[in-house]
Amino acid sequence: MGRWMRWVGILVGLLGVPAMGMAQSGAGWIVTGSGRTHYVVQGTGDPRDAQGASVTLRGDDPLPGQFGASGLVLNALPYRGHRLTLTADLSTRDAAQGALIWLRVDGGRPSEAFANSQLQPVFGTTAAAHREVQVDVPDDAEKIFLGTALTGAGEVSTTDLRLTSRVSPAVHITPLSMLNAAIEIVRAHALRAAQVDWPTLEPKLRAMVHPTGAAADAYPAIRQLLAALGDHHSHLQPAATAQKLEHGGFASSSPKVQALPGQLGYIDMPGYSGMQGAARRAFVTGVIGDITRVQPQARCGWVVDLRHNPGGSMLPMLASLRPLLGEGVLGGFRNAQGQVYPLHAASPLDPDLPKGPALEHARVALLLGPRTASSGEVVAVAFRGRPGTRSFGQPTAGLSTGNSGFRLPDGSEIFLTTSVDVDRTGQAYGERIAPDQTVLAEATAEGDATLDAARHWLAGACGALAQQVAASSNL
Asked: What pTM was computed for the model?
């Protein structure tokens, strides 16, 4: 699943939306989010004052997966070069899907600095749960956005939302400080942290690094730390790679949507990497447009081919398949504490993407293979338990777990396995996903036995349906 979890592992954390489409409320407070028309905010006071601000955010019957956020916009000029801290004691009522606080800085590019309390959401009915987040304000910062957020229905309020600042300290990043930061992250958040022999492992790791030197000198020790988890999915991304993916977006291959003989539609869904918004939206819009074009020729169902999908960011993949997946809960992600965070095809990052034709009742043949990995496996899990769906091929790679992204002091990033995939029936995964019908033969230039098996099943189901319709029309 990779970098998808950095933004979506907990859906209420997806507040990296543009400062647009915001509804103004009293005292300068605004409402934003994927379901902003279903949320109301009341705010008074100033979070820069000693007494803080009072803010109440209520959600009334939002659609599944939608969230709302209260927000205040401040001029960032006085805070350039400062470290900002946002604190609040959150009180919630019937917040079944969680509430949090968030803080964001925009400058030469959107979301130059962003933090929220998504790793500690406040659930249900709770009084005065303290939360705190920090960001460093870059020298080109222009605007500061801050507030509270709520996924689903319910209410979250605070009487002491406060923003404080101090000059950001100049810190020399050493290999040892890098390793210490990584150990702290892994011990606090890794799915398998409790299975690690920490008294034995930590001294070995610290012996691998010197107190002085370049930050990157800690990378071998950090990689060994992640390998000790044994989840085969956690990994370290150097700063240059993390920045490239933050500001880029690309598919592992070109998506393909076409009509097949027998009134079938075919979708070859590749992996997708990167968080750049325009590229992500172009990818989804293109696939949805192609599905809409082919749909009249696909009366007997669809083939969704995930055999060439190595994963990446799963939001564009799910959003592209939204016509077939529909609007409901598709499954979720279960963390070490047993909490399950729901999964939807609609992307909270891009709430205005096209939905495409309503095909959630169409038959779907899903093609799987050993190169179906990570977020590709999440897509496979999203189809598990879907009516009228059958999978064909070979078991997947075995990375059906969720990764969350954690930034290290030098700008590199740990993508840490924090959850396992769960389908809509409640079945948890974490290992290889076996197809409903195994087909051992690989596709060659002479033929594709897996695709043939899928087409045969769809054609048979379509023929049976046609016979039923004809019989009922003769009654």
From this structure: 0.68
